[in-house]
Amino acid sequence: MNDDLKALVRTIPDHPRPGILFRDVTTLLLDPWGLRQSVERMAASVPTRPDLVAGIEARGFTLGAALAVALGCGLLLIRKDGKLPGETIAEDYALEYGTDRLAMHVDACAPGARVLVVDDLLATGGTALAAARLVRRAGAAVGGARFLIDLPDLGGGDRLRAEGIAVEALMTFPGH
Predict the structure, then answer these.
(1) In terms of residue numbers, what domain contains 150?
(2) pLDDT, the chain, mean
(3) Do residues 150 and 156 make contact, with C-beta atoms less than 8 angstroms apart?
(4) Among 37, 53, 80, 90, which lies 20 to 30 A Cα-Cα from 104?
(5) Would you call 79 a catalytic residue per the annotation?
(6) What is the Cα–Cα distance from 136 to 162, expressed in whole angstroms?
(7) In the predicted model, is pLDDT for residue 175 greater than 80?
(8) Which CATH number fits the domain that encloses residue 113?
(9) How many separate domains does the chain show?
(10) Catalytically annotated residue among 36, 40, 49, 96
């Protein structure tokens, strides 16, 4: 599956701790052809143009902005809590060693808007699920989620699909 793009992803062993194979997409993003192909292929996987692409901080901003331009729609920023000015809504989610919190502006998307959630990597699905819940709390509909990489062994795709979210990734890697 997209082996040409997979070849541009650097694997860093034992990061952030022993036994982990970290899939580093920055090497793919540095490559003009790889970046263009990634965006074009992700855009081609979207059957219906959304009203907004929700990019999750931080690499999801890069992909989300490029995908929003390619699809002809707006960009919704999903940020770490405390980073946005103005009134926000926030959602907690579980991490391996605790919890974190994502936020978006309370008026960032209109009720009934169709939103595509985008990030670089899908692992356990906690971050993407928190982003989707924020969008839904605003009254919008999550039309799907797109990722460069899925680590299916960690179950994130299954968690999102259980919430009724269609998931696609350009590449999959085994393990964690």
Answers:
(1) 47-172
(2) 96
(3) yes
(4) 37
(5) no
(6) 15
(7) no
(8) 3.40.50.2020
(9) 1
(10) 96
- The predicted-structure confidence for 55-107, as pLDDT tens digits, reads as follows 999 999 999 999 999 999 999 999 999 999 999 999 999 876 779 999 999 99
114 is catalytic: no
For residues 45 and 146, is the Cβ–Cβ distance under 8 A?
yes
Q: Is residue 100 part of a domain?
A: yes
Two tokens, residue 155: 């179950």
Cα 111 from Cα 69, distance rounded (Å): 22
8, part of any domain: no
Length of the chain in terms of residues written: 176
Q: 41, 59, 114, 133: which one is catalytic?
A: 59
| The amino acid at 115 | V
Closest CA to 143 of 58, 85, 76, 84: 76
Q: Is residue 58 part of a domain?
A: yes
Distance, CA of 105 to CA of 29 (rounded, Å): 28
Q: How far apart are CA 16 and CA 107, in angstroms?
A: 36
Q: Is residue 82 a part of any domain in this protein?
A: yes
